[in-house]
Every structure is written in structure tokens, then in C-alpha cells.
């Protein structure tokens, strides 16, 4: 099996020019915990924003500036300041035997799937592996 067999295709992405508030609202409204960040001009993958990282930043802002300034700080904090840029990427044909070991060794929640032009094609999350496990168990 390969990445394409379990990935979530066409994941919700966000522009690198968006604010932390935009990301917060998008994660809430679309019920996602991982946002691939793409270049506004080229659409290429440039980073990843996780719910964990976003919440950590929001809590830091809350503790530093207080509830009254939180909304303003979120609106004026670009995602580019918060996202992870050193992110391992997957290809569509990456074997799952390698990917699952990478998830285990690095305690990851997700990895983006990109094509040869660095365009986001999908995302693989730990939930995708749980769903695969369920499918395999039900086949027994």
C-alpha cells in the first residue's frame, strides 16, 4: 500500500499571508487540526500549522497580553511567524511501511502529500492510519 491509498485528498489549506486568527477560525469551522500552508502567489507548499502549535501561541499571547488584547494580537500575527517550515513531505507513491515507521519514530500527527511541483495533493494523519487499521481488522 502507498500513501495515495490512505491519504485525505484535497485537504483544507491556508495562505502564508493569513493571520493566526484566520487559521484559528478555519480550524474551528472545518473541524481540522492540521493546515498545510501554501504560498499565496504560487500555491506551493511552504509549511504546516498544527492545532497544537496554534493553541500554544494563543496561550502565550493570552498570558502575555491578556484577554482584552488577544483578538487583536491574533489578527495581526501572520501564520508565517508560527508555522513549521522544516516539514517532512510525502509523495503519492511513498510506501506505507516507511511512512508508518516515520510516524512512530517522530511522534507525528500528520504529513503533507505533495506532487513534483510541490503542490499539496493530500495529507496523511494518524487518524488515517487508525482508519486503515479498522479496515484491515474488519477484513479478518
UniProtKB/TrEMBL annotation:
PROSITE patterns given in the database record: CBS
CBS domain segment(s): 7-70, 83-140
Keywords: CBS domain
Listed SUPFAM superfamilies: CBS-domain pair
Keyword hit for Nucleotide-binding: no
Keyword rRNA processing: no
InterPro entries associated with the record: CBS_dom, CBS_dom_sf, Diverse_CBS-Domain
The organism's place on the tree of life at top rank: Bacteria
UniProt protein name: CBS domain-containing protein
Native organism: Shewanella litoralis
